[in-house]
Every structure is written in C-alpha cells, then in structure tokens.
Amino acid sequence: MKQSSIYLIIGTFSGSFFAEHLDAQVLAGVFVLFASYSSAQLILGLKPKPTRTLPKSIGMGIGSSLIGMLSSLVGVGGGVITIPLMLMHNVPMRNAVGTSAALGLPIAIAGSVGYVWNGLGKTNLPDLSFGYVYLPALFGVVVGTFITVPFGAKLAHSMPVSRLKNIFAVILMVLAINMFVEIFMLS
C-alpha cells in the first residue's frame, strides 16, 4: 500500500505538468465516458466476477500512477476515480469510500505542488493566485471539507450500502453530464 501511495503521488504530480499541453476536450471526454460507465454499472447493479481482485505490486503501481495522473488532469478528487475502480475489483463500498478519503490528501498535496510549480511566473492569472492555485477557492474548499467530512462519514456508515452506491452513482452521472455540457456544449 505504501508503494501505491508513492506511485499515486508521482502520477498526480506528473499530471500537473502534462495539463498545459493536453487538449481539455479529450481529457473531459475520457472522464465523461469513465464516470458514465461507472455510474451505469452501479445503477444497474452490475457486479464484477467474484474472483476479481485488485492487481498486485506492478499492476497496482501502474494503476495508482494512472489514477493520480487522471485526477490531476481532470481536476477531480481521487474518489471519483478510485471508488468505481475498487468496486470493479470487489472491494466493499465502505472500504472503497474510506480508502478514497485517505487517498484524497496525497492527491491534493501533489496536485497543488505541481500546479503551483507550473504556474509560477505565468501572466494573466487572477489576483491571489499562487502559481495556478487560486487561494480563495483553496481556502473555501479546505474549510468546507473540514466542516462537512465528519457529517459525510457518519452518514455513510449509517445508511445501507445499496443506497450509498445509488447516491454515488447519481453524483457520478451529474458530474459527467455537467462536464459534458460545460466542455462540449458551452464552449
């Protein structure tokens, strides 16, 4: 698990370097397809083969790097990507949510450091930016997270797993639709 975290951090940090050079529509399209597919699987109750488990060391390292990179490139927390992937490998929902929450911190730190580094010295950024990180938004998200995470964790442990999966599926689908509309219809 420790090695996977290192690969996750490397992937996230690397993604921040590629972000400037990749087409936003291609990235958004990949995310929309992944989120839609994952959401449909959850809503339809499709289950992976019972023997399917998470990959071992090399596969986990590659997967962790890709999760970090994709999270960094499309600007989402790891949960949107890691939870569906863990569910596809028979990790129980509550374990997937808890693991995803733990992975959020290294993704956030590595992505932030990368976007600060890549944005230093750039012009035409809003006031109160540190590199590509807009500090008022960072502050708002951090404060909001500290306030709402305990409530969310308590709620997740109190509701049936099937309802938790359905709520997550709806959130994934809303994110996919929102990104599709913003990138492909409003631009």
Count of DSSP strands: 2
Spell the H/E element sequence. HHHHHEEHH
Q: Any idea what the radius of gyration is?
A: 17 Å
Distance between the termini: 41 Å
> What number of structural domains do the residues give?
1
Structural class: mainly alpha
- The residue-averaged pLDDT reads 87
In spatial order, strands of the major sheet run 1-2
The low-confidence parts are: none
Give the helix level as a range of percent: over 70%
The DSSP helix count reads: 7
Strand content: under 5%
> Biggest sheet: strands, sense, closure?
2 strands, antiparallel
Shape: globular
What does this structure look like?
The protein has 187 residues and is mostly helical. It has one domain. Helices cover 75% and strands 2% of the residues. It has 7 helices and 2 strands, in the order αααααββαα. It has helices at residues 2-18, 24-44, 57-74, 79-87, 93-119, 135-158, 161-185, and strands at residues 129-130, 133-134. A two-stranded antiparallel ribbon has the order 1-2. The longest helix has 27 residues, at 93-119. It is globular. The chain starts with a helix and ends with a helix. The model has no long low-confidence stretch (mean pLDDT 87).
Task: Fill in the keyword field for this structure.
187 residues, 7 helices
Could you give a short description of this structure?
The protein is an all-alpha fold and 187 residues long. Helix content is 75%, strand content 2%. A two-stranded antiparallel sheet has the order 1-2.
